[in-house]
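Sample intake sheet
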Amino acid sequence: MWSLYYSNNKDIGEFIVTKFEDINNKVIPLFDKYPILGCKYKDYVDFKRVSKLIKNKDHLTSEGLEKIRLIKMGMNRGRN
C-alpha cells in the first residue's frame, strides 16, 4: 500500500510505501520510466541494488547485510 501526501506547498510531496512488494512493483518501475535527474540518480541506483538484495533474501545472511551496509555508507553524503 502507498500514499501520497502534499504539504501546504504543492511543489513538495511525501510518498509513503508500507508494503515491500510495492517498492519493486510500483516505485522502481515509476522511477525507471521517469528517471531522477541529477546526483540523486546514483542514490536511486543504490536503492534498487538494496531492494534486489532484500527481494532475493540476501539480507538474511551476514554477507548480504554487509553488502547493504557498504551500499548505504556510499549513499548521499558518503558518496565520493
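Comment: The chain is about 50% helix and 10% strand. The radius of gyration is 14 Å.
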